[in-house]
Amino acid sequence: MLYTSATLLAVDKPTGIIVHGDGTGVTTLTDLVRNAVAAERLVGVDPACAPALQALQRLDRATSGIVLFSVCKQTQAAYDRMLAEHACEKRYLAIVHGRVPWREHTFTDPIGRDRHDARRMRVSRTGKAACTCARVLDMRCVRDQWLSLLEVQIETGRKHQIRVHLAHAGFPLLGDELYGRPDPRGLMLHAHTLRFADPVSGEAVNITAPAPARLRALFPRTLA
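^ thats the sequence. predicted structure below, dont judge the formating
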């Protein structure tokens, strides 16, 4: 657990698990968190809240990092509104193929569904507005291949937004099976920080999920 209050909790999602049910009956992150709360394994969270727990965000199965949960039904709408209005700062760590030619860059290409593959999104003139800001943290050559470590901030929440914008620019995420190519180390995308003013308590909230081992292994000095 990364954070807890009377109305919220945040956990560090591992790769390989979905946040919400997809109709297949597979165990979800929501199931695991509810079970942990009910079994009193999360200190500071009332086990009676377990049935009301609701994930407020989605992360792709292969993406790791912060997922925020509402604890109380009475206050969930306030957090849903906060996220819908983008009243929080979301930053990710991403490792991409290539040596990017800029230190900072903002992508504003609209994003829509790929009509030829239901799993994919794409840059499209008829898509929805999307804004992704990227900043280079480090670059290195690994086995004759250049990799760039980026800090990415999203100002909108389109599906696969970071993956689509970076791939479209010619710098697909390492391990991205949909928009690049698979890698045995997994998808190099991690929801790293979340900052916002709590709409219920008014307190400033700053949550950090430490960089996971798969990212640290490639950039050990920067992500130590």
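The first helix runs from residue 29 to 38.
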